[in-house]
Specification:
This protein is α/β, with parallel strands linked by helices and 268 residues long. It is built from 8 helices and 14 strands. The strands form 2 sheets. Strands 6-5-4-3-2-1-14 form a 7-stranded mixed beta sheet. A 7-stranded mixed beta sheet has the order 7-8-9-10-11-12-13. A hairpin with a 2-residue loop joins strand 9 and strand 10. The longest helix has 14 residues. It is globular, with a radius of gyration of 18 Å. It starts with 13 loop residues before the first strand and ends with a strand.
């Protein structure tokens, strides 16, 4: 018997890695994660991985921040699904993120404003933008999502995604931060943390400047969680430094680290 039969109630969270790279070259897709086929977290590579039918299943999209490597696929999803979506896709982010999407991407100059366009065969907009209050749980689809601001070069958040009595924390891009770990320590059902390591240790200066993490800094952040049994899923490695970063991560002791690969599917 399989859990995927229609008469069996889902009691799991399926986490699919569409892309988890901090840069784009062949074989390394940009940041994008899919939960239970319908909730997308960031959209860097969504349309380069998902076919039309899979894109049509997406009902809600969470955006951590507006850097291009996290939102590029949002533009192409809208273009692909115009005339082919059964309902509007809800795009969620804190006020700074939604304002940035409106002014810098869907502004009818860089890309058409797909929150407004309708016409023959498309009676409703493909996308609808929604502000997420910070640090307030919000029901979104089958999940409850809480956005917590982190320390990046532009306004950026981590997402606590609670689904079937389990909580996944997707931290997104960040430098050293505090508030998200304070909240995470209180989550008894925390099943995993997705955390970045963008640069090798020798690039500490650029990591500090751009507010990203190195393996050394990742360990310092994980120590703030104080939950050594919780798996840490490492993401956002720059592809040109990937092997070096992995070698440095392997030297860390006392942590449950797993470097994500595109195509990974984890079930919690």
């Amino acid at each position: 018997m399989t859990l995927y039969r229609k008469h069996v109630k889902k009691t799991f969270m399926k986490f699919r890695v569409l892309g988890c790279s901090g840069g784009q070259i062949p074989g390394h897709n940009l940041s994008s994660f899919l939960i239970n086929d319908s909730l997308l977290i960031d959209a860097g590579s969504a349309t380069s991985v998902l076919g039309f039918k899979a894109q049509q299943k997406i009902k809600n999209i969470l955006i951590t921040h507006i850097h291009l490597d996290h939102v590029m696929g949002l533009a192409t999803i809208a273009d692909n699904l115009y005339g082919n979506c059964e309902s509007t896709i809800n795009v969620w982010g804190i006020n700074d993120v939604i304002s940035g999407l409106k002014s810098s991407l869907f502004n009818d100059t860089i890309w058409p404003d797909f929150t407004q366009i309708t016409g023959d065969g498309q009676d409703w907009p493909v996308l609808s933008f929604h502000n997420l209050p910070e640090e307030e749980p919000m029901p979104i689809g089958d999940s409850t999502v809480t956005a917590v601001r982190v320390n990046h070069i532009v306004p950026s958040v981590a997402f606590f995604v609670e689904n079937h009595q389990k909580t996944l924390l997707v931290v997104g891009d960040t430098g050293p931060t505090e508030r998200v770990w304070n909240i995470a320590r209180g989550k008894k059902n925390l099943c995993a943390v997705v955390l970045e390591a963008s640069f090798p240790n020798r690039f500490q200066d650029i990591a500090d400047m751009s507010r990203h993490l190195t393996p050394r800094m990742l360990a310092q952040e994980v120590d703030k969680l104080r939950k050594p049994s919780v798996p840490i899923l490492v993401t956002h490695l720059k592809p040109q430094f990937r092997n070096e970063i992995i070698a440095e991560l392997k030297k860390l002791r006392g942590y449950r680290l797993r470097v994500l690969k595109q195509g990974d599917t984890l079930v919690f």
